[in-house]
Amino acid sequence: MSDAAAFGAELIKAGLLLETGVPGLYGRSGTFEAVHDGLDAWITRIGVAERAEIMRFPPAMNRKRFEASGYMRGFPQLAGTIHCFCGDEREHRALLACIETGQDWTAGQKATDAVLTPAACYPLYPILAARGPLPPGGATIDVMSWCYRHEPSDDPARLQSFRMREYVRIGRPEDVLEFRQRWLDQAPVIGAALGLPALTDLANDPFFGRTGKLKADSQREQGLKFELLIPVGSAEKPTACMSFNYHQDLFGTLCGLTLPDGSTAHTGCVGFGMERLVMALFRHHGFTPATWPAAVRATLSL
Ligand code: ATP
Ligand code: ZN
Ligand code: MG
Predict the structure, then answer these.
(1) pTM higher than 0.90, yes or no?
(2) Residue 235: pLDDT above 90?
(3) What is the mean pLDDT of the chain?
């Protein structure tokens, strides 16, 4: 068993994660959620100077808007779609017969207007764009969504369904870069406040296919993505618990986000992987929050 799988088994044995029988899909205990809620409230406090507009989304988003985001070009392997039965009584009987005989009953399922949200910031760009040109100074959004990624794993830190909290900056390139740098500068402070060994490093997204390698290399060369890495499942290979992304004018162009002078807005986001951070806390401080260092408990109001 890998390090990560062993840590997952411990979390399950301690009752912090509840097994569903699908890798990467877990229920959470009250203790897990208390830590999550403390972390969530602390993220609000450390972001208060952003004076961000709050947006909260359900786990699913508009399929047309998802298509327009280009996600299927970069990450078709990760996307989750929502399909439903739309047939008549005859087709219903056929479906039940398939289930009863253990055959595939899903072939007739039809795509709905919704897909599962891949990253918390995706639903917000079209909503902002629909308001018209941004105000001078742009916008800052505090967003949270349950996210889905089809990456089943025995590493408990690689979930299929998880919560992502983000601060998103929309504005001139220099506004977005200043915002991202400010959060990158804060990264060691965040690690220290949680009592966690954290390092920041340049990163890339797992772009699909042969052209994916080129896209990943170019993303790295341009310094578009950084991660806050903390050992969670594996001691040797630390896990990305936060990311600091500069999208340039990608979403601005795709969604028609404009600045008062008519130019296209740039965007960037700072994302917190909520479950990963909670698991990092359990990994480094033990499974009983009452015994955690007083400073960490104070940070998390535990
Ligand atoms: P990784 O390199 O580990 O796959 P990522 O680069 O795909 O992470 P992002 O797309 O930047 O991650 O997502 C923002 C944050 O969401 C990450 O920093 C991480 O904390 C969290 N996250 C991403 N994928 C998962 C997952 N499968 N399970 C739990 N949290 C995740
Ligand atoms: Zn984002
Ligand atoms: Mg990933």
Answers:
(1) yes
(2) no
(3) 97
Q: Which of 22, 43, 158 to mutate to test the pocket of ligand 1 (most atoms within 8 A of CB)?
A: 158
Report the SS3 class of residue 22.
coil
Q: Which of 228, 227, 224, 203 is nearest to 267 (CA)?
A: 224
* Phi-psi domain of 292 (left: phi exceeds 0; alpha: psi -120 through 50; beta: other): beta
* C-alpha pair distances (Å), 22 with each of 8, 58, 80, 98, 156: 13, 21, 15, 22, 11
Cα(205)–Cα(199) distance, integer angstroms = 18
11 CA distance to ligand 2 middle (Å): 28
Q: What is the pLDDT of residue 4?
A: 97
Radius of gyration, CA atoms only, the chain: 21
pLDDT at 112 over 90: yes
Distance 92 CA to ligand 2 centre (A): 40
User: For residues 39 and 32, is the Cβ–Cβ distance under 8 A?
Assistant: no
pLDDT above 70 as % of the chain: 100
The 3-state secondary structure of 151-189, one letter per residue: CCCCCCCCCCEEEEEEEEEEECHHHHHHHHHHHHHHHHH
Q: Is the pLDDT of residue 1 over 90?
A: no
Q: Are 269 and 169 in contact (CB under 8 A)?
A: yes
Query: Quick check: 160 and 59 in contact, CB under 8 A?
Result: no
Taking the C-alpha atoms of residue 164 and residue 119, their distance in angstroms, rounded to an integer, is 7
Instruction: Specify the ligand 1 atom closest to the Cα of 227.
Output: 18
Q: What is the mean pLDDT of residues 270-299?
A: 98
The C-alpha atoms of residue 145 and residue 162 are separated, in whole angstroms, by 8
Residue tagged 């902002």 (tokens): 128
- Residues 23-60 have pLDDT tens digits of 999 999 999 999 999 999 999 999 999 999 999 999 99
